[in-house]
Write a structure and sequence with these properties.
Elements (H helix, E strand, L loop, with lengths): L9 H10 L1 H10 L12 H15 L3 H13 L32 H14 L6 H15 L19 H7 L7 H10 L4 H8 L6 E3 H9 L13 H10 L10 E3 L11 H7 L6 H4 L5 H12 L5 H12 L22
Antiparallel strand pairs: 1-2
């Protein structure tokens, strides 16, 4: 089963997202820098310290936390609903959704939360922890820095069906991707900028298996992939849909450096996913790719910081909305 099966549900949930936009923007304005200055003055330092420890030991955690933040914000806004554990077979949460099956880094958030509960119980939200940790993880590997206003509260609802419908698919075409991002209040520029996060991290072979070995059902390869790149991928990814462990770096040029080389890969028809290749099929996104390649990423760090600042304020809960979870995986009772 692939995320493609759930794409039609996007139209249903996009309407709900659009209806909530007015409240979302009002709530975003309620966030502020140093929200915990009096209630938990060491909060941001604790988040930074623990995140840095993990990422320095395993740099790929930076990509994991960045992806986790986006997948959370794409469903019901940045409310940490992604972190809620399922409680029964008939209560499947976002964490169990297909697009989230390869996420990693949950233990980092849990350990930060435990440290903060010891420091100042019931004060710092899991949503703020995820927003801060994703930024600190990127800066730990010398990526761009952006301000993270805080004051988010945690959501109480988490549904796998919504995650399957709303998280942009690696199989999506450019029209669908633009629709996905527009529903979140993000622009086409934000789409191509945030796609640049693929400059770090890995892609699992089972996601691209059909693209390499059976693109149209006739045992063929996606013609949009560079033949040499496809041949290299086939040396790493076996022709089996049951291989859930093999992976490749999304940016083969500088896989552990936060730079513009992902855009170089895409312009050379070496984007790993169909959604990467789709960026060549729109003038605005293609022009941005080519500009970053030509100028060696001259504006990419600044652009990425600006798009992340927008993204982490999508649909936030503030004030008396939601709750402050004691455990990020469990809703308070």
């Amino acid at each position: 089963m692939t995320p493609q099966k759930f794409l039609p549900l996007f139209l249903i949930f996009a309407m709900l997202v659009a209806m909530a936009n007015a409240n979302a923007y009002a709530n975003a304005n309620a966030l502020k820098l140093d929200f915990y200055k009096k209630s938990c003055p060491n909060a941001e330092g604790i988040v930074h310290r623990i995140t840095e420890q993990y990422v320095k030991h395993v740099p790929n955690f930076a990509a994991g936390l960045l992806r986790m933040a986006f997948h959370d914000c794409a469903v019901r806004g940045c409310d940490a609903s992604l972190l809620i554990n399922p409680t029964a077979a008939n209560n499947q949460t976002e964490k169990t959704a297909i697009p989230n099956s390869t996420l990693r880094g949950f233990e980092i958030i849990d350990n930060i939360k435990s440290a903060l509960e010891r420091e100042c119980p019931g004060v710092v939200s899991c949503a703020d922890i995820l927003a801060l940790a994703s930024r600190d993880a990127v800066t730990t590997i010398s990526g761009p820095w952006w301000e993270v206003p805080t004051g988010r509260r945690d959501g109480k609802v988490s549904l796998a069906s919504e995650a399957n419908a709303l998280i942009p698919s690696p199989f999506a075409d450019i029209a669908t991707l633009k629709q996905n991002f527009a529903a979140l209040g993000l622009t086409t520029k934000d789409l191509v900028v945030l796609s640049g996060s693929h400059t770090i991290g890995i892609g699992h072979c089972f996601v691209i298996q059909s693209r390499l070995y059976n693109f149209t059902g006739n045992g063929d390869t996606d013609p949009s992939i560079s033949p040499s790149y496809a041949a290299w991928l086939k040396t790493r990814c076996r022709p089996s849909s049951n291989d859930f462990t093999s992976f490749v770096f999304m940016d083969r040029i500088t896989p552990k450096v936060f730079d513009e080389k992902y855009y170089t890969m895409v312009t050379q028809n070496r984007g790993l996913f169909q959604s990467d290749a789709a960026l060549l099929n729109d003038k605005e996104t293609r022009d941005y790719l080519e500009f970053q390649v030509k100028t060696m990423g001259s504006t990419f760090p600044k652009d990425f910081a600006e798009s992340m600042t927008k993204m982490i304020q999508i649909g936030v809960l503030t004030g008396i909305q939601g709750e402050i979870r004691k455990n990020c995986g469990v809703v308070n009772y």
